[in-house]
Amino acid sequence: MNKLLLLHGAAGSSTQLEPLAKMLENKFQIYLMNFLGHGGKEIPDEKFSIRLFAEDIRYFVEKNKLEGIDIYGYSMGGYAALYAAFHYPGLVNRMFTTATKFDWNENSALKESAMLNPESIEEKVPAFAKKLMQRHTPRDWKKILMKTAEMMIELGKNPELSFEDISKIENEILLSVGDRDSMVSIGETIDVYRKMKNGSLLILPQTPHPIEKISANRLAFEIENFFLD
User: Rounded to the nearest 5 degrees, what angle is found at the Cα of 222, between the Cα atoms of 39 and 188?
Assistant: First the structure.
């Protein structure tokens, strides 16, 4: 049975991928992990970065003797997986990403980081604030958001994975993006796809950015089609 690691996005946790994992468990040996500072894991003193989260992937894979495992990465999880594939050749095999942002610049970073203001979230969308608190308990969800915002601003100044880096990745990769994603454009996804050695592209219809609003049934179907073909 194929082994598949599912990776969550920024300020997220593995619990968000449990519905998808359940749909896939009869076809794959599923693995879930939380990045440092997420899902209740200890928040490091070190700044959040894609390098840090890629090292998380490497540690998890090596600890569990899963070298060459396939990966599905949502949003930041996909970015970290690609970083790991570039910097640690042979660590992972095929990759499938959804809603992964590649076009980081100062303007886009400021726009996205502004949406992670804890006080604003607490005031305007208290239900979401409660969800974040539950997702990361016993850790401080506000600190997690602030560190994530800082990471985005830094990515805007110094993207950790360049288009040139991506063009050198040998792995087979499927990039997917929703046609209604307000954070990740179809254009930037196509630009990256065209630079890949072994890339393919999937546009998901009627699909916005949040993982909870992406059809798990559709994702499960596409994951099976890609990894089991």
Answer: 75
